[in-house]
Design a protein that fits this description.
About 5% of the residues lie in helices and about 55% in strands. The chain is built from 2 helices and 17 strands. The longest helix is centred in the first third of the chain and has 8 residues. The two termini are about 30 Å apart.
């Protein structure tokens, strides 16, 4: 599903998106092994192209030590990923912001390294009382049609050593000539006692759902994927791909992106952000 099909996605996100202060792209407050759980985690350095999807989009992962933050998401091309990875955005200014409990909403404007206008819409979750640890969803658009849909968060230093349930909020975006966006809830159950932690994910809105029964965690990086996943209308889900990561120094948060695969006329895109 091409992100460029979601031409009116920004209009939907602006209803809930607002902006904090400072230059950190992801937070409102702007504060900055052995196998299995309980082991130390080291975010992999460098920029990684995880997968090129059938419609030409790219799944990417990268770590920005200066923030510090880990990023995972889907981009139309490498322009947005390169700007974020290299810290090239400048003249970042906030236009709106709000906070409800531990959820925050941020809307920002910036300039790219080439002087192009950049719109940044963020929905996130504080993982610590002072807001210094977080997980968030970013929709970013650079003038000229470069778009990206990513999640970001505070890097994990050590994963839990237990069976853990993460819960929180999701959004599912449906693209079929127009754009429908619904919010809902999810649960992610992970057994970190296993040498290779694994678990299941289930999420739903009023009319749509996504799920995976074979979440596999890399305990060295705190990243996770699924061998198979589905997303779409309840009872009529289609195949999808999940790219996720745990967040917070003690793995207290989890976030991910899921996208339908293939070039069907109707595409589905979702994110989930929560904590234990």
């Amino acid at each position: 599903m091409k992100i460029c099909k979601i031409a009116v996605l920004q209009c939907f996100l602006l209803v809930v998106g607002c902006g904090g202060s400072g230059s950190d792209l992801n937070t409102l407050s702007n504060a900055q092994p052995q196998n299995g759980g309980g082991s130390e985690v080291s975010p992999p350095g460098g920029f990684r192209l995880v997968e090129t999807l059938v419609d030409g989009q790219s799944a990417v992962r990268f770590f920005v030590p200066s923030e510090p933050a880990v990023y995972t998401g889907i981009v139309e091309d490498q322009t947005i990923a390169s700007e974020l990875y290299n810290g090239s955005l400048h003249d970042i200014k906030d236009t709106k912001s709000s906070k409800v409990g531990d959820r925050f909403f941020v809307e920002r404007e910036a300039l790219s390294s080439q002087g192009k206008d950049v719109l940044i819409n963020i929905s996130g979750l504080d993982l610590s009382a002072d807001g210094s640890e977080y997980a968030s969803r970013l929709y970013i658009e650079i003038e000229g049609g470069h778009k990206g849909y990513l999640i970001s968060g505070t890097p994990v230093e050590v994963l839990p050593k237990a069976q853990v349930t993460y819960s929180g909020f999701i959004e599912i975006i449906v693209v079929d000539g127009a754009t429908t966006r619904q919010e809902g809830n999810f649960e992610l159950d992970i057994d970190f006692n296993k040498s290779v932690p694994s678990g299941v994910l289930s999420a739903s809105t009023q009319d749509y759902a996504f799920a995976a029964s074979d979440i596999q965690v890399d305990p060295k990086t705190a990243e996770f994927t699924a061998g198979s996943a589905v997303i779409g209308p309840k009872g009529h889900e289609v195949a999808g791909a999940i790219y996720g990561t745990f967040a917070g120094t003690e793995g207290q948060g989890a976030a991910g992106v899921i996208a339908s695969t293939g070039n069907a006329a109707v595409g589905y895109l979702g994110t989930f952000i929560g904590k234990r």
